[in-house]
Amino acid sequence: MLVLAHRGANREAPENTVAAMARAVELGADGVELDVHRTADGQLVVRHDAATPSGVLCDLTRAEVAAALPDVPTLGDVLDVCRGILVNVEVKNLPGDPDWDPAEGAADLLVGLLGIRAGLDDVLVSSFHLPTVDRVRATAPELATALLSFGLDPLEALVTAVDHGHAALHPDVWTLAEPGEVVRRAHDAGLRVNVWTVNEPDVMLRLRDAGVDAVITDVPDLALDVLER
């Protein structure tokens, strides 16, 4: 079972920063999970929330974001630090978000950036918004995509992920009360199951024993110890 550092090693450095990602690499995590938003000038920056004290990210240029929030990196900055490990890029884009974009601009920017980088990176693209990962899959079928779910029946979410041709399901740990059946059906369909956010040792072991493929965790060092890695 892989260990992915949630927003990097966020308990040892500020979340979604280059420092947090670099620390996850140092700890030996198999990968990292991060969040991206688009800027007004077509860059992708790594931050969980779109709203900032200086305005919404999509209304700010990259230079303005850097001036107001110097710790916020571009996705390219993070990919450079994480070369050689898996990077789970969550594209933030839901109706009701302050930077909601039905045109899926962030997804298109991501596909373009990864195309320019020409296979340098091991990336899994995820989103809670099904049309976002559908857009990535349609425009770059070579990229692995995953459907995120929260508070949904994991088996129903799995059916949706299978029907839309995605490579993985990312259910939340609180809803995944009985992981075995979900994992079995997912693996039968050729999908991986990566669970978020898993911080308790007993839960890590239960998910490992159920055949879960990866945990996304705030404590990658603890997870590696628990899994005797």
CATH class: Alpha Beta
Structural class: alpha/beta
Average predicted local confidence, pLDDT:
98
Q: Do you know the CATH architecture?
A: Alpha-Beta Barrel
Helix content: 25-40%
User: Count the strands?
Assistant: 11
CATH superfamily assignment?
Phosphatidylinositol (PI) phosphodiesterase
Estimated radius of gyration? 17 Å
Q: Topology as H/E string?
A: EHEEEEHHEHEHEHEHEHEH
Classify the fold: give the CATH topology. TIM Barrel
How far apart, in Å, are the first and last alpha carbons?
Answer: 10 Å
The largest sheet has its strands arranged as 1-2-6-7-8-9-10-11
Query: How many domains, in number, for the residues?
Result: 1
H/I helix tally = 9
Q: Give the amount of beta strand, in percent.
A: 15-25%
Characterize the overall form: globular
Q: Main beta sheet: strand number and arrangement?
A: 8 strands, parallel, barrel
Set out the fold topology.
Elements: E1 2-6, H1 18-27, E2 31-38, E3 44-46, E4 51-52, E5 55-56, H2 62-68, H3 75-81, E6 86-91, H4 105-117, E7 122-127, H5 130-139, E8 144-149, H6 154-163, E9 168-171, H7 179-188, E10 192-196, H8 201-210, E11 214-217, H9 220-226
Parallel strand pairs: 1-2, 1-11, 2-6, 6-7, 7-8, 8-9, 9-10, 10-11
Antiparallel strand pairs: 2-3, 4-5
